[in-house]
Amino acid sequence: MAEGTIKRLTDKGFGFIDTGTSNDIFFHSSDLEGVSYDELQEGVRVSYNEGQGPKGPRAENVQLV
């Protein structure tokens, strides 16, 4: 699993993870495991699997580290 930091959260139930490269990765609240969207905060470390969504790369199985 890759690791990153929550970079931005929206009020629409999705956000972006800073992967440590120049490309952030999208995630949706339905991709969270063991944590609710409301518990997340910007700057928190997470682990995830990189998958493919309809608009490009997408983080799946997002969990707190």
Structural description of this entry:
With 65 residues, the chain is an all-beta fold. It has one domain (2-64): Nucleic acid-binding proteins (OB fold (Dihydrolipoamide Acetyltransferase, E2P), Beta Barrel), CATH 2.40.50.140. It is 0% helix and 55% strand. The chain has strands spanning 2-9, 14-18, 24-28, 45-53, 56-64.
What's the total count of β strands? 5
| Quaternary state of the chains | single chain
Determine the structural class based on helices, strands and strand pairing: mainly beta
Distance between the termini: 11 Å
Roughly what is the average pLDDT, rounded to an integer?
96
Full CATH superfamily name = Nucleic acid-binding proteins
Order of helices and strands: EEEEE
Strand content: over 45%
CATH topology: OB fold (Dihydrolipoamide Acetyltransferase, E2P)
What is the number of independent domains? 1
Low-confidence stretches: none
Number of helices: 0
Order of strands in the sheet with the most strands? 3-2-1-4-5
